[in-house]
């Protein structure tokens, strides 16, 4: 009886471990794409996304094409907060993530962290292919921007 219970616990742990790992890999593909988009590195983003999605993100929804983009001079990093991560019937992941981009505007230089931030709510679709997870939909929406208060 003990062996059966331990086997069932092991199977359940393996199943949930695989599901977590699978979702984590899908999220890492999104994060690589979003980081490339934020830094305006089309080739880097293209390694995580398909061609139509990469073209749409960089030609129609570029980071420079919004209110904050015009004053982004030096990229200083990003932070991500997942609002939702759902798996659909086809096995693809649909993510809603808030990406905060830290940057320096013209005339301001900080060593670490940036003087300002811009926040985007991004919806992304991530699909498993033979070569791993790929971003197949990416729609960033500008939320707000502001100064970082340093003491």
Approximate helicity band: 25-40%
Figure out the total of helices.
Answer: 3
Strand order of the largest sheet: 1-2-3-4
Instruction: Tell the overall outline.
Output: elongated
Order of helices and strands: HHHEEEE
Count of DSSP E strands?
Answer: 4
**Average pLDDT figure:** 85
Query: At the third CATH level, what is the topology name?
Result: Nuclear Transport Factor 2, Chain: A
Termini gap = 62 Å
Low-confidence stretches: none
CATH class: Alpha Beta
Radius of gyration: 19 Å
Largest sheet: 4 strands, antiparallel
The gist of it:
It is built from 3 helices and 4 strands.
Task: Give a structural overview.
By secondary structure, the protein is α+β, with helices and mostly antiparallel strands. The chain has a single domain (2-147), classed as Nuclear Transport Factor 2, Chain: A. Helix content is 34%, strand content 37%. It is built from three helices and four strands, in the order H-H-H-E-E-E-E. The protein has helices at residues 2-38, 42-46, 51-60; strands spanning 74-87, 93-104, 116-129, 132-147. Strands 1-2-3-4 form a four-stranded antiparallel sheet. Strand 3 and strand 4 form a beta hairpin. The radius of gyration is 19 Å and the shape is elongated.
Keywords:
151 residues; 4-stranded antiparallel β-sheet; alpha+beta
Topology:
Layout (H helix, E strand, L loop, with lengths): L1 H37 L3 H5 L4 H10 L13 E14 L5 E12 L11 E14 L2 E16 L4
Antiparallel strand pairs: 1-2, 2-3, 3-4
């Amino acid at each position: 009886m003990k062996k059966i219970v331990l086997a069932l616990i092991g199977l359940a742990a393996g199943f949930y471990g695989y599901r977590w790992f699978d979702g984590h890999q899908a999220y890492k593909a999104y994060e690589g794409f979003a980081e490339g988009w934020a830094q305006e590195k089309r080739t880097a983003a293209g390694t995580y996304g398909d061609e139509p999605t990469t073209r749409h993100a960089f030609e129609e929804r570029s980071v420079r094409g919004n209110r904050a983009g015009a004053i982004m001079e030096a990229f200083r990093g990003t932070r991500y907060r997942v609002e939702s991560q759902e798996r659909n019937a086809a096995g693809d992941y649909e993510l809603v993530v808030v990406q905060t981009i830290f940057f320096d505007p013209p005339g301001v230089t900080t060593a670490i962290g940036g003087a300002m931030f811009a926040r985007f709510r991004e919806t992304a679709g991530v699909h498993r292919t033979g070569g791993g997870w790929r971003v197949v939909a990416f729609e960033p929406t500008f939320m707000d921007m502001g100064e970082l208060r340093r003491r």
